[in-house]
Write a structure and sequence with these properties.
This protein is mainly alpha-helical. The protein contains twelve helices and no strands. The longest helix is centred in the N-terminal third of the chain and has 38 residues, at 62-99.
Length: 295
């Protein structure tokens, strides 16, 4: 197991923890407002980290900038906003099921965009891990009925999120294989590009409020929102880019997809009930990750 795989596991862990916190704020701010809020705060954190660490390994080639800017627009501006919108429309269970297909999408995009082909064993690992996650996140009982219009809207948002987040990872790899860009600088450029795109949309739309996003109007427990931003966006995005730098984006995305299993583990620690599907799916996913890491 290399640096990239370890970083991906840690990224999945911090994202799992922060998702629990982000969910409670998805009804206080709109998806775009929440995305804008977390992007600006996490961007400031990254700037401070760059100054403290004296990190000077920013991109030198224009193609690297293009890749990272496109990655931010697709992965963060569109992908994260679509993810928050899916959570609001169809809930976490349905959203996570659809998000489980992101690794396979990343593997296909890797072929078309970068010309990189995974081995048969790596694809087997992706399929086994995805199957395990799907089994684990299968609802224990029938999900509450959702109005048909909301259901289709949420489904579209979840699919868009999976596609754009996978594309964002592959584009980031395209930038980082061009030259020796630091993962922190890559994360900052990607984050600020996506956040700027969201800011333009928020300023243009009448039903969105830039000031509400900045002042976090109506948000209770702001310290928990800051905690989610620090771990989920600042640390999480940094670790994501570190993993993509040292391993294939499809492999990294597969490990990221195990985040729901970590959410369930947190629930188990909190003595929440664990079902047979959760245990079986978790074991299958672990086997898939093992196959992937040994490929």
């Amino acid at each position: 197991m290399g640096v990239g795989e370890v970083a991906a596991i840690l990224a999945a862990g911090v994202w799992a923890s922060s998702t629990i916190l982000y969910k409670r704020f998805s009804h206080h701010l709109s998806p775009l407002e929440l995305n804008l809020c977390k992007g600006l705060i996490a961007g400031l954190m990254m700037l401070v980290a760059i100054l403290v660490l004296r990190d000077g390994l920013l991109p030198q080639q224009i193609t690297s900038w293009y890749w990272l800017i496109a990655s931010g627009i697709f992965g963060i501006a569109i992908g994260d906003s679509a993810y928050f919108a899916a959570l609001r429309n169809i809930g976490a269970a349905r959203t996570l099921i659809i998000e489980s297909f992101a690794p396979a999408i990343a593997g296909l995009l890797n072929i078309f965009m970068l010309g990189v082909h995974l081995s048969l064993q790596a694809w087997m690992g992706i399929v086994i891990t995805t199957l395990g996650v799907l089994i684990a996140v299968k609802p224990r009982q029938l999900l509450p009925a959702v109005e048909k219009q909301l259901y289709y809207k949420g489904l579209a948002f979840a699919l868009l999120a999976a596609l754009c987040q996978a594309a964002g990872m592959v584009m980031s790899k395209g930038a980082m294989q061009e030259e020796g860009v630091s993962s922190l600088w890559a994360a900052l450029i990607r984050l600020l590009s996506g956040t700027l795109a969201v800011a333009v949309v928020v300023a243009w739309m009448r039903d969105q409020s830039f000031s509400k996003a900045m002042r976090m109007t109506g948000v209770d427990g702001r310290r928990w929102l800051f905690t989610a931003i620090f771990f989920g966006t600042f640390i999480g995005l940094w670790l994501q880019l570190l993993s993509v730098k040292y391993t294939d984006p499809a492999i990294a995305q597969t490990i990221f997809a195990t985040a729901p299993l970590m959410v369930m583990t947190i629930g188990f620690i909190k003595r929440e009930p664990i079902t047979f599907n959760m245990l079986m799916g978790g074991c299958i996913a672990l086997v898939g990750v093992a196959v992937l890491l040994l490929s």
